[in-house]
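Translate structure to sequence.
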């Protein structure tokens, strides 16, 4: 996976980046490699990893209170230390910039990096913010969690309108942060093309565009602030998402056998099979007419084997349907189109996305090609098959989900990692 080498290159280059802008604050990718007192009082003596208060990027009282509350609930000091380090990490370390479009106006923007790479992934930023959904409430203050969500929705909308097939983006020009060089993408030949000043990487993943719908629903469900979605570029972004998804309902070959024009192609010069697409950048053949939307890459940023990737179709169907409720306040025809598209994808999953496993019975496939072939596995990322209930796609008690869960958490899943644990 190229991911690790990107992390490494970025860690080496990170000392020169402009994040934080507080001269006295150490770069977090450096800070995170060192041990910091006080160590936790349990068996594992875990380091305290939060930056000192003045160096945290964004703080809100609700999150600090949640950490305090957990202290009395979580009795194991090591387990509490893991929570205390991890829960605020997105706010502490990844809000690289927050401001306004055109350095003015009331359009908030939040640039949320994935970690030590100064780039914003659509999927990751939606999932990073989701950690705080339980604490989210309506709040017009620009210092609030609600503002952070609004800023992410506005910036994701801008990214999607500009480059709807891309997965990771550069800081907005308003931030004054320079574009980050992605050496892994130096040889990429991608259609449609893009500018490296705006885009960090352009791997088309259905879960990237579905992420904006998920993030929108998360904000709306907790705030009921439908008005916000009519103010800036959200409606245009949803139209863009629908266009992209419609284009990718089409299979590889037309009924008369000719090759359909693929809306997206990607090729990279690489020795890793997971980093480039077969078939001249189109990917392995998939059938038309399944109701499922193609995805060239997975949430891990590795290529799909079969492009009808079920977890992202679950996520897309779920949040397209839910976001139709937000759209109702602005454009009822578009809202209807969203609901009916969501239903078709759901039907496609029922018809083509389930297979009979010799040990577990009926389970969801990870990927299918629509011709009858499937890839049975699960991957440690979200969306995944295991996460189907937290994608609000299916109830956890669903029989097919329960079978799938048993499969995914067993050695029948080729990517189920098991074996000795550090420190015994
Ligand atoms: C906003 O300010 C930044 C930093 O001063 C500058 O680099 C950028 O060009 C400005 N953007 C706009 C849209 O005015
Ligand atoms: C709104 O958010 C700000 C900043 O986090 C906080 O100080 C304030 O208490 C919040 N207001 C309400 C009504 O929750
Ligand atoms: C085959 O079908 C496609 C899609 O319907 C069409 O664009 C193309 O012109 C057809 N080719 C031939 C040779 O009929």
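Result:
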């Amino acid at each position: 996976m190229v991911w690790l080498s990107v992390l490494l290159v970025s860690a080496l280059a990170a000392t020169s980046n402009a994040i934080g802008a507080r001269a006295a604050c150490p770069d977090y990718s450096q800070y995170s490699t060192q041990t910091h007192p006080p160590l936790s009082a349990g068996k594992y003596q875990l380091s305290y990893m939060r930056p000192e208060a003045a160096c945290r990027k964004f703080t809100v009282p609700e999150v600090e209170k949640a950490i305090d509350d957990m202290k009395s609930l979580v009795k194991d000091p090591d387990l509490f230390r893991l929570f205390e380090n991890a829960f605020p990490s997105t706010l502490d370390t990844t809000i690289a910039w927050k401001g306004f479009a055109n350095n003015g106006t009331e359009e908030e923007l939040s640039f949320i990096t994935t970690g030590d790479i100064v780039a914003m992934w659509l999927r990751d930023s939606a999932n990073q913010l989701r950690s705080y959904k339980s604490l989210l409430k309506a709040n017009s203050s620009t210092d609030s969690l609600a503002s952070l969500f609004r800023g992410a929705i506005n910036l994701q909308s801008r990214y999607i309108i500009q480059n709807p097939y891309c997965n990771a983006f550069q800081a907005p020009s308003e931030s004054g942060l320079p574009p980050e060089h992605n050496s892994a993408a130096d040889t990429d030949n991608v259609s449609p093309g893009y500018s490296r000043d705006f885009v960090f990487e352009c791997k088309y993943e259905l879960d990237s565009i579905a992420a904006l719908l998920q993030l929108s629903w998360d904000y709306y469900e907790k705030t009921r602030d439908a008005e916000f979605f009519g103010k800036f570029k959200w409606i245009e972004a949803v139209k863009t998402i629908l266009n992209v998804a419609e284009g990718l309902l089409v299979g590889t070959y037309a009924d008369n056998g000719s090759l359909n024009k693929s809306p997206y192609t990607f090729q990279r010069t690489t020795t890793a099979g997971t980093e480039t697409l077969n078939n001249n950048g189109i990917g392995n053949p998939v059938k038309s007419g399944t109701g499922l939307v193609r995805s060239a890459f997975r949430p891990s940023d590795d290529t799909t084997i079969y492009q009808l990737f079920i977890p992202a179709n679950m996520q897309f169907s779920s949040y397209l349907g839910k976001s139709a409720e937000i759209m109702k306040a602005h454009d009822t025809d578009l809202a209807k189109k969203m609901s009916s598209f969501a239903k078709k994808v759901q039907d496609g999953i029922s018809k083509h996305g389930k297979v009979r496993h010799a040990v577990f019975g009926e389970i969801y496939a990870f990927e299918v090609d629509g011709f009858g072939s499937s890839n049975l596995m699960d991957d440690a990322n979200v969306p995944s098959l295991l996460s189907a209930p937290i994608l609000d796609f299916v109830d956890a008690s669903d029989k097919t989900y329960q079978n799938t869960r048993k499969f995914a958490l067993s050695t029948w899943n080729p990517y189920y990692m098991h074996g000795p644990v550090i420190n015994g």
